[in-house]
Amino acid sequence: MKHTEGEWVWKQNRGKDDYKHSIFVFGSKFIAELSGKNCTKSEVKANARLIAAAPVLLEACQIAVLALTHEPINPDDIKVIRQAIAKAEKP
I need a labelling partner for 12 at 20 to 30 A (CA). Which of 19, 29, 50, 81 fits? Predict the structure, then answer.
């Protein structure tokens, strides 16, 4: 099975419960909703960022495996890996 294609993004839901965040494909499909029942607000936000970054993190891991098993390492591959990590970590 393949994951939903497209750029995954997250947003904080508006309303009474600011602990809820949604993950969706930009301008398209709903993926998931997160709730902060047992988490802090910052943890919920960080979890939403991490889930939204999953497709690019997967791609970065695939590139890393290729880069680590073949020489020389392509600098463009390192750039993709760093961008994936940044997407997961950025506030």
Answer: 81
